């Protein structure tokens, strides 16, 4: 797989004061929307029906031309150049999937590579690779879409969108048409996929649960494409900006559910924690294993704090470092609501669980949101 | 009229060597009939299908074009034949013009309807994947519309084969000659043979085309079945 254009944390997509009024309509579908989407993050657009979510996506790949405002992808205005060339560099997945019914799954997946003129060998290698990536059996490749289940079709839709390895993926309610069990499985798979691929994803949904589960950041829109709030799922959930957001996310209900559950019910992660008595080498390994930029230090099980990986010494010992205190520390008896409150304050959006100073483990927001979901018993195994 | 003369006349007609060989024979008339029908359908298809595809693809001028094409449907073929005879004189041309006007409308309307019926989600993803307008038309809209377009062609073929009989009225040849001459000579054998032949050709052509149609769109068939 190729490297992604743009370093993580750089803006990959930016909308500057973008408005759209459809020809036939009197009121704008989107009004002066300004939004920045960073490279490698999943931003979820949520809002009631007709609030302009689809319009925003389609303006990014120019299926719809904005009435006014500027849109850039990877630093280039989308209005420059031919729309079909732009679209080949942006994966697009829609709710109805829209597979080509007269082509085999294999050829469907190869749509963009074929347009780009890849060699048959390269296309064939890539198709097999993608089938594995999205969990499609190779035997499906020579079937026609009509012979696939809804969930399988959407896997093909995702594979087709990823085929030419575009840095950006636009997904418009991709899991809206499949049953809840399959939906949860596809969501889990997307999370896994994203860990490996680090695409810049703009994901549209009606479903706040889905937004909380998938989003690094959630953007809540109101009718007319008005931005009501944007922030991390934890921020949105614990600090809704206004009444509309509260109502929309069912804040009351969710916060009550969170208040009723305790950290002790979660299976905590160990995280990149090492004893001060080990070596900097072991600390680096722990950080690499967990994919973090920091390590936590313990001395005989008691929390000392954290240090950035960049500050780990070359010397053989970790002694003498000055660990910083963790931003969010909760006990195992804390409610999930308190935990989320604490997390929102910390820069890492996770909380350290400790009893009397002794380290117990880590909670991150995803674990909390999964706990919220599992209460209704609707989650499926992956 | 009794049965005897008909059987007798049929026997006489079929026994006449001129029926089988020469300028007024069945093979020659059959050839004329098929050629006239084929040229008419091909010309109409060439004239009507590309603009229909384009108009439907662009979602432009569809209504106006359909209105124009449907004038052909409203005017009786016989009327067109008469007008063109007055205009061009006798021969195969008036019949050809009339038959083109007859076969154009079903092909046009079917083509337009078929392209407009392509699933909007399929089109959205075709555009969204970065296909050019031309690719959307040729790789997606046309193949998906093909079964219904073929159906339009099939309707046109059977109408044209039946109606090409009129060509004989304008000295255009074809199997219609047997009917026209049969009437004129009060030769019921010839008349009956002509009618039977026209019907048989129409049925055979339809069967052959239907078989071809199935071969034309094999993917659709397997797309339906989930084996
Ligand atoms: N092609 C169009 N022509 C005219 N109006 C349109 C068009 N597409 C969308 N609209 C209108 O623009 C507004 C925003 O539509 P959009 O599809 O972006 O909303 P959405 O948030 O995606 O809705 P949903 O959740 O139902 O998919 C709606 O009022 C819709 O009716
Ligand atoms: Mg929508």
What is the count of β-strands of chain A? 16
* Proportion of strand residues of chain A: 15-25%
Please state the structural category of chain B: mainly alpha
Strand element count of chain B: 0
Q: Biggest sheet of chain B, open or closed, and with what strands and sense?
A: none
Q: What is the topology?
A:
The complex is a heterodimer of chains A (382) and B (227).
Chain A (H helix, E strand, L loop, with lengths): L10 E10 L9 E9 L3 E5 L6 H8 L7 E6 L2 E2 L5 H6 L1 E5 L10 H5 L1 H5 L4 H14 L16 H13 L5 E5 L7 H18 L2 E6 L2 H7 L2 E6 L3 E6 L1 H6 L4 H7 L1 H10 L12 E3 L4 H11 L3 E6 L2 E7 L20 E2 L5 H10 L4 E6 L2 E7 H10 L8
Parallel strand pairs in A: 3-8, 3-9, 6-7, 7-8, 11-12, 14-15
Antiparallel strand pairs in A: 1-2, 1-4, 4-5, 9-10, 12-13, 15-16
Chain B lengths: L2 H13 L1 H4 L5 H33 L3 H13 L2 H12 L3 H25 L3 H9 L4 H31 L12 H10 L2 H29 L1 H7 L3
The structure holds adenosine-5'-triphosphate and magnesium ion (MG).
């Amino acid at each position: 797989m190729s490297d992604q254009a743009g370093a993580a944390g750089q803006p990959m997509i930016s909308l500057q004061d973008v408005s759209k009024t459809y020809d036939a309509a009197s009121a704008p579908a989107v009004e002066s929307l300004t939004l920045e989407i960073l490279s490698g993050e999943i931003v979820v657009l949520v809002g009631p029906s007709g609030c302009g979510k689809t319009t925003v996506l389609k303006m990014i790949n120019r299926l719809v031309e904005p009435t006014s405002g500027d849109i850039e992808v990877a630093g280039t205005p989308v209005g420059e150049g031919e729309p079909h060339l732009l679209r080949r560099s942006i994966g697009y997945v829609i709710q109805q999937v829209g597979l080509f019914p007269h082509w085999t799954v294999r050829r469907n997946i190869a749509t963009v590579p074929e347009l780009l003129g890849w060699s048959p060998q390269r296309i064939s290698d890539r198709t097999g690779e993608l089938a594995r990536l999205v969990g499609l059996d190779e035997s499906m490749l020579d079937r026609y879409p009509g012979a696939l289940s809804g969930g399988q079709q959407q896997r093909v839709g995702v594979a087709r969108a990823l085929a030419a390895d575009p840095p950006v993926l636009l997904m418009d309610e991709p899991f809206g048409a499949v049953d809840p069990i399959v939906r949860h499985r596809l969501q889990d798979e997307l999370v896994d996929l994203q860990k490996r691929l680090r695409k810049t994803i703009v994901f549209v949904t009606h479903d706040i649960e889905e937004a909380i589960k998938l989003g690094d950041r959630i953007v809540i829109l109101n009718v007319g494409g008005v931005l009501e709030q944007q922030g991390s799922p934890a921020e949105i959930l614990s600090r809704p900006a206004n009444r509309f957001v509260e109502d929309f996310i069912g804040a009351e209900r969710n916060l009550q559910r969170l208040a009723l559950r305790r950290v002790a019910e979660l299976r905590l992660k160990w995280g990149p924690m090492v004893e001060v008595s080990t070596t900097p080498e072991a600390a680096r390994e722990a950080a690499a294993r967990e994919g973090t930029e920091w390590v936590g230090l313990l001395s005989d099980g008691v929390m000392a704090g954290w240090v950035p990986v960049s500050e780990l010494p070359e010397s053989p010992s970790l002694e003498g470092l000055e660990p910083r205190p963790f931003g969010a520390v909760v006990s195992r008896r804390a409610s999930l609501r308190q935990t989320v409150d604490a997390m929102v304050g910390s820069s890492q959006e996770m909380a350290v669980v400790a009893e009397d100073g002794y380290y117990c483990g880590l909670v991150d927001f995803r674990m909390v949101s999964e706990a919220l979901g599992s209460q209704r018993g609707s989650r499926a195994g992956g | 009229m009794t049965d005897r003369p008909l059987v007798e006349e049929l026997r006489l007609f079929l026994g006449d060597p001129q029926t089988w060989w020469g300028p007024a024979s069945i093979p020659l008339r059959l050839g004329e009939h098929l050629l006239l029908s084929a040229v008419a359908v091909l010309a109409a298809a060439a004239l009507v299908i590309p603009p229909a595809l384009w108009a439907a693809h662009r979602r432009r001028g569809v209504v106006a074009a359909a209105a124009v094409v449907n004038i052909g449907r409203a005017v009786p073929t016989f009327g067109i034949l008469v007008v063109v005879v007055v205009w061009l004189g006798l021969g195969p041309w008036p019949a050809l013009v009339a038959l083109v006007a007859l076969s154009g409308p079903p092909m046009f309307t079917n083509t337009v309807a078929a392209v407009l019926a392509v699933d909007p989600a399929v089109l959205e993803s075709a555009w969204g994947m970065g296909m050019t307008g031309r690719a959307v038309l040729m790789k997606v809209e046309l193949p998906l519309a093909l079964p219904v377009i073929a159906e339009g062609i099939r309707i046109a073929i059977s109408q044209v084969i039946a109606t090409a009989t009129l060509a004989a009225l304008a000295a255009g040849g074809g199997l219609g000659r047997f009917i026209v001459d049969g009437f004129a000579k009060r030769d019921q054998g010839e008349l009956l043979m002509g009618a039977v032949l026209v019907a048989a050709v129409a049925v055979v052509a339809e069967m052959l085309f239907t078989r071809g149609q199935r071969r034309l769109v094999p993917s659709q068939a397997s797309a339906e079945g989930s084996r």
